[in-house]
Amino acid sequence: MKKIMCIILCTILLSSCARIVQPKTKEALNKQQEAWFSSAEGNYMDPDRSFGFQCVDVIDDYCIALFGDYVNSIGLGNAGTLFKKIPSNSKYFTKISYNPNKPNIIPKHGDVIEWVKHIAVVDSATADTITVLQQNRGGRAIDPCERFTFTDYKDVIGWLRPKIKLS
Question: Cα separation of 23 and 61, whole Å?
Answer without folding.
Answer: 28
